[in-house]
Amino acid sequence: xxxxxxxxxxxxxxxxxxxxxxxxxxxxxxxxxxxxxxxxxxxxxxxxxxxxxxxxxxxxxxxxxxxxxxxxxxxxxxxxxxxxxxxx
Amino acid sequence: xxxxxxxxxxxxxxxxxxxxxxxxxxxxxxxxxxxxxxxxxxxxxxxxxxxxxxxxxxxxxxxxxxxxxxxxxxxxxxxxxxxxxxxx
Lengths: 88, 88
Hints:
By secondary structure, chain A is mostly beta strands. Chain A has one helix spanning 66-73, and strands spanning 6-9, 15-18, 36-42, 47-50, 77-84. Chain A is 9% helix and 31% strand. A two-stranded antiparallel sheet of chain A has the order 1-2.
């Protein structure tokens, strides 16, 4: 399956292809949702690792799939790690 | 600036263009880093809104830039909202 692109032929020998500068980030998660916003609660002293590559099978949590994404695209995205302070 | 793509001409009339299925998500943030991982601490009872579109000017926090990204690409990405439980 290829992504449809606009093709303008300037001459038989050269083809100008306009690939959209910015493309979609999310091609897997809740595609029917208008906007995917997740609200998470962390108990005191707890830590969670959250996905930011939109490829995780355990979204919104990270499952390491950013490694495969980075390898396939040359990207450098990684997760967000949040720790809730311990109760004093 | 266009993204380089592989072009295979099958015949003068039709041009097969292979656009990579997955493209980079991060085109702005710490591009020299091997992998961008953020570690954040949340005080008890506090809430933070984190960016997942990689376009925020206040990364890793959200600044609303996902709205412009979604409009430009038809994407549906939104932030992650984390709340640290109140100390009991």
